[in-house]
From TrEMBL:
InterPro entries: dITP/XTP_pyrophosphatase, ITPase-like_fam, RdgB/HAM1. GO terms for cellular component: cytosol. Its cofactor is Mg(2+). Binds 1 Mg(2+) ion per subunit. One of its GO terms (molecular function) is XTP diphosphatase activity. It is an enzyme of class 3 (hydrolase). This is dITP/XTP pyrophosphatase. Pyrophosphatase that catalyzes the hydrolysis of nucleoside triphosphates to their monophosphate derivatives, with a high preference for the non-canonical purine nucleotides XTP (xanthosine triphosphate), dITP (deoxyinosine triphosphate) and ITP. Seems to function as a house-cleaning enzyme that removes non-canonical purine nucleotides from the nucleotide pool, thus preventing their incorporation into DNA/RNA and avoiding chromosomal lesions. It catalyses: XTP + H2O = XMP + diphosphate + H(+); dITP + H2O = dIMP + diphosphate + H(+); ITP + H2O = IMP + diphosphate + H(+). HAMAP family: Non_canon_purine_NTPase. GO terms for biological process: nucleotide metabolic process; purine nucleoside triphosphate catabolic process. Substrate binds at residues 7-12, 69, 154-157, 177, 182-183. SUPFAM superfamilies: ITPase-like (SSF52972).
Length: 199
């Protein structure tokens, strides 16, 4: 089964391809099929993921899978949330993973409450008008370190410390990260939904 991935993020594509391999599902990056990206005007992960999935399905005629994910920091009332990817730009930095980490650490200086959660919301639609989208949410709670550790993963992985492992996401072996990450958890839930409803 071919499903268009409503993302051009290479890190996301690699993670999701590995996670969806057991189903025999082939994920095709939307950028390989058409130009442009969906608007993401909403303040929740699920609304943005649904908008992206419907957009990709409409542009390709294929079932579509979209992920909207981010970091929710307790001290910031759950922000940056849906604005995670562009977080650093509000502080004058160019958009990049490294600058996002730098901006977050700068904004958290002097903050003792380091609790945060990484959240991934996956939405799959069979068509742009699908009245019953599949929705899967994965969440991992941890703490934001004061300095990055590890060189794996992407995004905020080097500063997202997981007490249960005593490591950051960036320090975990890929297979362990994929099994326990927010995206790993939402993917396992989505795999179960796809098996039950679509396959």
């Amino acid at each position: 089964m071919k499903i268009v991935l409503a993302s051009n993020n290479q890190g996301k594509l690699a993670e999701l391809q590995a996670l969806f391999a057991p189903l025999g599902v082939e994920l095709i990056r939307q950028g390989d099929l058409f130009q442009g990206e969906a608007e993401e005007p909403h303040c929740t992960f699920v609304e943005n993921a649904l908008a992206k999935a419907r957009f990709a399905a409409a542009r390709t005629g294929l079932p579509a899978l979209a992920d909207d994910a981010g970091i929710c920091v307790d001290a910031f009332g759950g922000l940056p949330g849906v604005d995670t990817a562009h977080y650093c730009t509000q502080f004058g930095y160019d958009k990049s993973d490294a600058n996002n980490v730098r901006a977050l650490l700068e904004q958290m200086q002097g903050t003792d409450n380091r609790r945060a959660a990484m959240v991934s919301t996956l939405v799959a639609v069979r068509s742009p008008q699908d009245p019953e989208p599949l929705i899967a949410v994965g969440r991992v709670a941890g703490e934001i370190l004061r300095t990055p550790r590890g060189d794996g993963g992407f995004g905020f992985d080097p500063v997202m410390f997981l007490p249960e492992f005593g490591k950051t996401f960036a320090e975990l072996p890929t297979e362990v990260k994929n099994a326990h990450s927010h995206r790993g958890r939402s993917s396992q839930h989505m795999l179960a939904l796809l098996r039950e409803r679509w396959l």
